[in-house]
Amino acid sequence: MKNRLGLALLALGLACGGLMASAAESGQTGGKSKPSTADHTKFKELAGPFKSGEEVTKACLSCHTEASKQLMATRHWTWEYTNPDTGQKLGKKTMLNGFCIGDKSNEAFCNSCHIGYGWKDASFDFKDENKVDCLVCHNSGDYVKPAGLAGNVPTVKTEWPMGSGKFFGPIDLAKVSQHVGKTRTDNCGTCHYNGGGGDGVKHGDLDSSLNSADKNLDVHMASKDKGGQGFSCSTCHQSDGHVISGSRIQMTASDPHGPNVRGDKDARGTSTCQSCHGNKPHKQPALNMEVLNSHTDKLACQTCHVPEFARGGVATKMKWDWSQAGKKDANGKPYVVKDDHGHNIYDSKKGTFELGNNVVPDYVWFNGKVTYTLQTDTIDPSGVVKINTFHGDSKDPKARIWPVKRFQGKQPYDTEYKKLLVPHTATPDDTAFWYNFDWPKALKAGAEATGEPYSGKYGFIETEMLWPITHMVAPKDKAVPCIECHKVDGRLAGLDGIYVPGRDSNKWIDWIGWLAVLGTIVGTMLHAGFRIFIKPARTQEKHHV
């Protein structure tokens, strides 16, 4: 009689008026932006013309005197961070991934997503305040930083890449600077949507569909006209002196502090669900809200409320095999193969891909601690290399069951020194793989840029990387149904360390469960009968008053 308890609990849930998790009635809501007190079109400092982005920044700093200093103290500028919990030195300067792998030797291409101008190699001056790019976060349109120009803006018509027939610019920097404003969702998305070389490639829950999300895609990001809350990224990821709350490098897996008091600021900002909704978010249905709230000591909010990722029509990459890169067609030319939806599934420059839409997450225990395999670390080539590891288990009071995107890669490594390698790929020279398809040259140049020794012997190894799923929050009536987890082959089938009714079976627990169900039903019936019995008496008393 396996799984009786789970089925009984599900039946009880139906009897009590519904199984779906109910969102909190109150929470932070988005509102219309307050009118600015400054009309930037009237500032003579912004009249231009500007020959470079640095000239615009110099003009901005004439009023916003501390802006560059503040920003230069952040990870957005330094691209490095020492995790106080693990001691690892992280950030894009040192971290690896299974997508484009690493930025070393590829700075001029990758660093179009840096909030600065001109970072093409190690000579970049991180102390030059005029190198800060104010416009990339505060522009209101008509601003572009093409990959390959080291974060510089084309102020004259520019063909890039050379010989491609694709032109950028000229960008009218005076016009852009005169129409700046608070950061918008698409400002953040310019970089955060496009990590890994394209829209939605990396995260799975961040892509351009959020710019025009409806309520079914994301209840927070959807505009109020579409039934959502009208949030921008900065509604949750609040900033203080340009320091923005929330990070996948050092996460808060469980937040015991409850909702923020209005006006109160702490390091977490409002980037956790609990900072608005608290740890008992479910207010109804009355008879099972306590059961739902009791799940919060084991489940992250996202586990129930993000049923799938990549739901907005933008596919995310789930696999990337670099070992297949370098093939050429019958004419000796690199080529691309697309699937029926127009997605690249093979590219001579990059290898083979597998993509996904409406992907059901994997689930792991996670306490917020993440460690990474870095360029300096020795790997074990006998198995799959974990580029990052989410720590935590069922016995850890800080751990919760979290949804993740499990990305699988196959990338180059040094077979003698047993270290992952960063290939030189993107900038047009004789050693870049995208221009010569020569792995030995590309790997040697990449190793020289990282400063790590290279034996000259290489192979390809399978890797895995986890990405936390925390955006694309569905409406409460579209949360994960209870039966999706409370069954034998459900979403939590491979998760250990926890007894899941409906998935697991234990004779004594089943009997206790049946007694609890029976007691609840009897108690409910007695309570209802008692109310019916005393109602006439109360009516008579009222008439006698």
Automatic annotation (TrEMBL):
It comes from the Bacteria. Gene3D superfamilies: Flavocytochrome C3, Chain A (1.10.1130.10). Keywords: Membrane, Signal, Transmembrane, Transmembrane helix. PROSITE patterns: PROKAR_LIPOPROTEIN. InterPro entries: Multihaem_cyt_sf, Multiheme_Cytochr_ET, Octahem_Cyt_c. The keyword Cell cycle does not apply. Pfam families: Cytochrome_cB (PF11783). The keyword Membrane applies. Residues 253-281 are annotated as: Disordered. GO terms for molecular function: oxidoreductase activity. Residues 1-23 form the signal peptide. The chain crosses the membrane at residues 511-534. This is Cytochrome C. It comes from Rhodoferax ferrireducens.
